[in-house]
């Protein structure tokens, strides 16, 4: 029988999430001041929109505004979307990240690590993707288009990150027309690195199909049910080589559950034959964990 560890209380989870969100907010501000502003880049989403407005007003109107004055108000509509469609606790954590990171960006010292714009785009994008992943694991997001992507991922089961990346081209085009094309082109590198890091580290809303051939199918199904709350389908067939009856379990689980599940399956049956492939689209009843 699979033993369950003592579940984390809601208070413990909230404290852990707040600490992660606080760390994320500091990293966001550091990244903006150290890489983005030094390189004159335009990050994706509403952060890029905010910087486009700030730099445009400074260049063409001589008006100098702080980052928080622009970034917090333009996030009000995405925050409303999050509150109504995604989850109240998720939205509150995200709002905390938005406000704290904005204020820290205004008040934290600006540190220059390098003036090489390519290195800035590369490492800045990696840092940005990492901190977005941290916030997502902390049941929060960094604001703006993250809410939109989370909405489509959680409610529709659609991976929207690449579409958000494509939408950022509009902001980069405006930035190129206003400030020249070199920094917007480097910003594409920054945004691409961000997207790839998120795809690598945060896979909750991606799904994979498991095909498991084992003589201990009942025990393996119990593990799948307890660990993932997903069902499985049992198929019976004949092994072509030995002409013996074989049992195969077919189950679809979230990608971030696969590693833990495989470890438990191999404990039960080291000789189990397991085939895993990426699930591009799901139609039908599939258990998705609540964001809150």
UniProtKB/TrEMBL annotation:
The chain crosses the membrane at residues 15-35, 65-83, 89-105, 117-140, 160-181. Residues 232-284 form the DUF2179 domain. Signal peptide: none annotated. Keywords: Cell membrane, Membrane, Transmembrane, Transmembrane helix. InterPro entries: DUF2179 (IPR019264), N-reg_PII/ATP_PRibTrfase_C (IPR015867), UPF0750_membrane (IPR051461), YitT (IPR003740). CDD domains: YitT_C. One of its GO terms (cellular component) is plasma membrane. It is a multi-pass membrane protein. Gene3D superfamilies: 3.30.70.120. It comes from the Bacteria. It is found in: Cell membrane. Its main location: membrane. PANTHER family: UPF0750 MEMBRANE PROTEIN YITT, UPF0750 MEMBRANE PROTEIN YITT-RELATED. This is Uncharacterized membrane-anchored protein YitT, contains DUF161 and DUF2179 domains.
């Amino acid at each position: 029988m699979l033993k369950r560890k003592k579940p984390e209380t809601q208070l413990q989870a909230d404290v852990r999430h707040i600490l992660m969100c606080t760390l994320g907010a500091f990293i966001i501000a550091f990244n903006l001041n150290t890489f983005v502003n030094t390189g004159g880049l335009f990050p994706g989403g509403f952060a890029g929109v905010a910087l486009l407005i700030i730099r445009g007003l400074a260049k063409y109107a001589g008006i100098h505004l702080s980052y928080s004055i622009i970034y917090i108000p333009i996030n009000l509509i995405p925050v409303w979307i999050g509150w109504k469609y995604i989850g109240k606790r998720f939205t509150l954590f995200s709002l905390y990240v938005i406000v704290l990171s904005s204020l820290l960006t205004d008040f934290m010292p600006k540190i220059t690590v390098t003036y090489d714009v390519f290195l800035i785009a590369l490492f800045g994008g990696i840092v940005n993707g990492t901190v977005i992943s941290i916030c997502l694991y902390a049941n929060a997001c960094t604001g703006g288009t993250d809410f939109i992507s989370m909405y489509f991922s959680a409610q529709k089961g659609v991976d929207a990150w690449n579409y958000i990346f494509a939408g950022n081209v509009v902001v980069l085009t405006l930035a190129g027309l206003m400030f020249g094309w070199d920094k917007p082109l480097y910003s594409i590198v920054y945004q691409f690195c961000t997207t790839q890091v998120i795809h690598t580290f945060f896979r909750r809303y991606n799904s994979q199909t498991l095909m498991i051939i084992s003589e201990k199918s009942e025990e393996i199904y119990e593990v799948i049910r307890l660990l993932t709350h997903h069902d499985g389908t049992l198929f019976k067939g004949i092994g072509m080589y030995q002409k013996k009856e074989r049992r195969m379990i077919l189950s679809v689980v979230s990608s971030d559950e696969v590693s833990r599940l495989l470890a438990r399956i191999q404990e039960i049956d080291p000789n189990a034959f397991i085939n895993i492939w990426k699930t591009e689209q799901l139609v039908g009843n599939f258990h998705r964990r609540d964001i809150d």
